[in-house]
Structure formats: C-alpha cells, structure tokens
Amino acid sequence: MRKTATKQSGKIPAQPGPREVASVQPGVPSAAESVIPGAGPSTRPGERPTVRLRDAGPDDAPRYAPEWLELREGPDAAARAADLLDPLRIRLANLPGKAGLVIHDLGCGTGSMGRWLAPRLDGPQHWILHDRDPYLLHFAAVASPRSAADGSRVTVETRRGDVGLLTPDALAGASLVTASALLDVLTREEIDTLAAACTGAGCPALLTLSVAGRVELTPSDPLDEEIASAFNAHQRRGGLLGPDALTVACEAFSERGATVRLNPSAWRLGPAESALTAQWLRGWVGAAVEERPELKERAERYLQDRLEACRAGELKVVVHHSDLLALSRPTGGAS
User: Fold this and answer.
1) Which of these, 49, 199, 253, 264, could form a disulfide with 63 (CB 3.0-4.6 Å)?
2) Mean pLDDT score of the chain, rounded to an integer?
3) Does 142 map to a domain?
4) Other beta carbons less than 10 A from residue 79's beta carbon
5) Structural domain boundaries, residue 69
C-alpha cells in the first residue's frame, strides 16, 4: 500500500518503492543505472507519462518519480520567467464578474507549478490539478499551498485526464490554464487541441519550462553537440514535438487570435545542484544512446568524465527552456 504523504515546507516527501527505480535499458550507458524515472528515456517506446489517460491500464506505471520532480523543483522555480507575471496579473485583474480565480494545471505532477504560482497571485484561487497518475495527484493535493499572495484562501481538487480531450466546455469558467514541462511531450495535434480549448474558452495560458533544444556545458567537450543532437532526435520520437513544440505552440495560439509572449527560462546548474545535474546527465546521455546505439562506447566514457566533474564541483550546465504566455481574447464577456 502507498504511504500517506504529509506536507513538509511545500516539498513532497520521498516515497521509497519499486516504482521509483528505472531499469537499465539495452544500449544505455552503465553509468545510467541509478537514473530516476523521468530523468531518462521511457521504459517503453512512445511512453507518454503524466498526460495520457487513454490506453493506460491499472498497472501502467508512471515514468516520473516524486524524487525527480522534487530534485528539479528548486531550479524550475528559479528558472521560470517572472517577467510574464505582470501582464498575466493585469489580465486576471480585469476578468469580468469573477469572485476568485479558477486555475487548471495540466500534467501537474506533484504540484510544483501551484506551489510557485499561487503565492504570487492575489485573491481567492481554486486550482484544478490534472494528471493521469493518481499517485502524483495525491502528492500534489497534500502539498498544495493554502494561501495566495494577499492571504486569500487557495483550494484544490484533482482530476485524472488527458490533455488531448480538452475542449472549450471543459474549461468553462476557467481563469487560467497552466502547465510546466508539458509542451515538448505533446504532438502537433495535441497542441492544436490545447490552443483551441484555451482560445475557445477565452482563457489565458501560462506554459512554462518547454525545452529549447540547446544545452551548454562548462568545460566543454567535443561530444557535447553530438549527444545533444541525438537527445533532441529522441525527444521527437513517435510524433512528439520535443524542442519544436514552442514554435508550434506559438503558431497554434497566434492563429487563433491570442497574443503570445515568449521568455527564456533556463536551468543554470552548478555545484549546489549537483544531484539534479547528475540525474539529468544520466538521462540525457541515456536517451542519446537509445537513439544512436553507435554512440555507446564513447558516451560511456563521456558520462563517467562528466559525473566525475559534477562530483568535484567543476561542472556547470545551462539547459535552455522557454516560458510561453498566451493571452486569448475573452469570449462572451467572460474569460
């Protein structure tokens, strides 16, 4: 049975168990043996972890473990583009006839987006947390914030669901749609569906931390670019957009009349983030080798060298992301 989680300073308590340990896949460097689910390639080709509900059976284990999501929560919070909050606040303050905000968080994971955003917005808020994994939804609910920036009450509910099934009706009454690290694991069709649902409901969307396909490692290595290229190809498997998602999303929202803003939101990882950097490295290299098995021997040496530099505090990594704010035109006098 699963243990009951408790709220501890906004963090998700670690939950030991077999679901949190990824098995090593053929072709993945041996240094990836301890990779946390979510930091590396999926356990089955085309696996779509926190978003899809259809075709998911009762034993369909998620890819993302709470440990991975907790490791990245601090760097995620530091990276998100705070400059997008002022235009968002202006839009939310001008919502007609609203006694409070209703915010849909898609693919919420353990709820880090709510913990970051809710205390930065004024007024009563009701968060509707969407994810296909009830295990993560449970954590998101118990660790959600309880008060807004001005002390107003914040409440939550959870829903299992599929972003591919969103409609304007499903977002009726919504003040805002949010998501974090979501766009790059969607297809073009799913991004079109998301944009159509948000713009059809006149609802703004704040979609953060989408991968941009660029990584900088210091000191550099001749294999950096080759690993990055193979990783980006892996991200596009099965029709997923990977680093192309931002361009597609901007087009999808703009074509439907929304005003779109993009701001950079890079991870900047140094010695203080060595645990996250090590996990990211294992997953990054593992996915590259899964995409291009001929890299295995060189990648194994590369990964060992990079992990050694990470342990010594000598490695710095910038993983480029972007945040997207889409301000849809209000419809029918309501957002």
Assistant:
1) 49
2) 84
3) yes
4) 21
5) 18-212+239-266+321-327
